[in-house]
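tool_call predict_complex ligand=zinc ion
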Amino acid sequence: MHELSLAQGLLSTALAAVERHNADNPENRALRIQEIECELGLISCVEPQTLTGCFELFAEGTPAEGAALTLRTVPLGCACSVCGHTFKLTQRRFVCPQCGSEEIHFNGGHGLMLVALRVESEEQDHARIH
Ligand SMILES: [Zn+2]
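tool_result ok
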């Protein structure tokens, strides 16, 4: 199940980002991750519910426990080999909208990318935890 390794990768990327943030902002450390915003490639074949479930499992006991995953599918840039038309696909229907050809090519569209993190930090409640 490839959601498992994706969830694991996502979690370690998010935790590393928090660690970096905390090293840079020792006065306002992030305590908890509230939301993780991600972009999903159109042909990543990820089942969002499975990914979320795996993530929740791995996140238990870390600062990412209880964080919400927001997944957004990004359009895939394509080019038609027959008429040369370039377009963006937003659903997995690989047909040129101009000439109807199925001979289209594209790059990428596989990955899962972390875009942004929303964290709860010390500043908000003035708590100091050492
Ligand atoms: Zn075409």
